[in-house]
Design brief:
alpha/beta; Aspartate Aminotransferase, domain 1; Aspartate Aminotransferase, domain 2; 3-stranded antiparallel β-sheet; 14 strands; 44% helix; globular; transaminase activity; pyridoxal phosphate binding
């Protein structure tokens, strides 16, 4: 056998691309290290790197504060002696929660049930039932190391014919889906969201796409991915659209994969509420197979590094669930602190609990800040010639469209880059702001976008840099 080289690796692995932590993020990290080593005599035209490329709320520079309740429960589970060493530090409801979990779990240094701690899965089922008004069952719920682990598991199970099995994914999409499909030799089947209608999803257009595939004699896709609220768009589906999607999945026997990790990131909950696909499927009385994903990484939790999430199976046969259990058993169990985070997610303090007032203040403040930043950024970006940004009712991102001249496109081609990647690299070099080019998410031919988070503090200065850069870039590469 020859020595290990890139060319000798699994070709499916070589095909994996993940734009969120790609070239831009690597270069941003190089700049960050350079700044740390040369603070007294900076060579760069900026004093800090702003990582707007990923929804990572608690990272340095974004600094979304963690929720006190979550950290206190985690602390008592991590180091039980704190209960006696600092008896007056922890509220009574925090101590009671930790005692209950300790009685069930014991040390978090031990493996748990491979599907997740039974008591926590019971609490997840109760959360879902309270949210939707319909029963949920702990045996149909899997706790996972973040929602991404659940998505990876489901896609690996769905690809029955490598190189042939297709999965419908939205464009633009979160690169997790194309990366995971590449890893398991699945075929991405894109359907396009309508930017002119607030990045809306059209069940009729997906239906037309499926009919075209059928008429061409090709194998129909196995599943349909819906990201709601959307990533990177922030779009939120209304109930009629969800009803139409469920009907579509029933008609074409598609497994519905509902990525709902941003369900609590709602900027206008009174006018733009979230409805779960579990609720829609149950009320449709259709036998649509559904897997719904949620996570502690988003919302106001922002506990990305704990790697906690879950998925729920609806209308999935017991033999398939047994196969899922077999596969998660290979990994032994999800991280215990992530599972504890899930318990805090689905069982926050209630009114009357000692921790409730602080929890309410912290969560309300974060929701308000995110909504204000989003609104301010949309307004500022839309005031710039050559930039158009759809307002986002949910999630943590904006996805502005940028107009690039033929000169800019030619310069990008000469540099061997996609035009929006060329633009994003220039933005990073000039301002220290790291975004993700739209080519990493997918977009229509001849259109250019970038995704940025709404998490950055000092939003006035931050957006001002984006605006000034676009104006200078347009001067450098003017329209013919």
């Amino acid at each position: 056998m020859s020595k290990l080289t890139v060319d000798s690796l699994n070709p499916a692995v070589r095909n994996v691309q993940y734009a969120v932590r790609g070239e831009l993020a690597i270069k941003a990290e190089e700049y960050r290290v350079k700044l740390q080593k040369n603070l007294a005599n900076r060579e760069l035209p900026f004093s800090q790197v702003i990582s707007s490329n990923i929804g990572n709320p608690q990272q340095k520079g974004l600094n979304q504060p963690p929720l006190t309740f979550v950290r206190q429960v985690a602390a008592l589970m991590e180091y039980r002696q704190l209960k006696n060493l600092a008896p007056h530090v922890f509220p009574r409801d925090v101590i009671a929660r930790a005692d209950e979990l300790w009685e069930e779990i014991g040390s978090i240094g031990a493996y748990s049930h491979s599907q997740g701690v039974p008591l926590i899965r019971k609490h997840v089922a109760e959360f879902i039932q309270e949210r939707d008004g319909h029963p949920a069952y702990p045996e149909h719920i899997f706790l996972t190391g973040g929602a991404s682990a659940g998505v990876s598991l489901l896609i690996s199970l769905l690809i029955s014919e490598p190189g042939k099995t297709g999965i419908l994914i939205p464009i633009p999409q979160y690169p997790l889906y194309t990366a995971t499909l590449a890893q398991y030799s699945g075929v991405p089947v894109p359907y396009y969201l309508d930017e002119t209608k607030g990045w809306s999803t059209s069940a009729n257009e997906i239906r037309s796409l499926l009919e075209t595939i059928r008429q061409e004699g090709k194998t129909l896709p196995r599943a349909l991915v819906i990201i709601n609220p959307g990533n990177p768009t922030g779009a939120l589906l209304d109930r009629p659209t969800q009803d139409a999607i469920v009907e579509l999945c029933d008609d074409y026997n598609l497994v519905l994969l509902a990525d709902e990790v941003y369900q609590s990131n709602l900027h206008h909950p009174d006018t733009h509420p979230f409805t779960s696909f579990k609720k829609v499927v149950v009320e449709s009385r259709r036998d649509v197979q559904l897997v719904s994903f949620h996570s502690i990484s988003k919302g106001v939790f922002g506990e990305c590094g704990r790697r906690g999430g879950y998925f729920e199976c609806t209308n999935i046969g017991e033999e398939v669930i047994a196969m899922m259990y077999k596969m998660v058993s290979v990994g032994l169990c999800p991280p215990l602190q992530g599972q504890i985070g899930v318990d805090c997610l689905v069982r926050p303090p209630k009114q009357g609990d000692e921790s409730y007032a602080l929890w309410k203040k912290e969560t309300d403040t974060t929701h308000k800040v995110l909504a204000q930043r989003t609104s301010q950024m949309v307004e500022a970006l839309n005031a710039v010639e050559g930039v158009n940004c759809v307002d986002s009712p949910g999630a943590l991102y904006l996805y502005p469209k940028i107009e690039l001249s033929s000169k800019a496109i030619a310069a990008a081609k000469a540099a061997g880059k996609e035009p929006d990647a060329f633009y994003a690299l220039a933005l990073l070099d000039a301002t220290g702001i790291c975004v993700v080019p739209g080519s990493g998410f997918g977009q229509k031919e001849g259109e250019f976008h970038y995704r940025l988070t709404c998490l950055c503090p000092g939003v006035g200065e931050y957006v001002g840099k984006l605006v000034n850069f676009h104006q200078e870039f347009s001067k450098k590469y003017p329209k013919a």
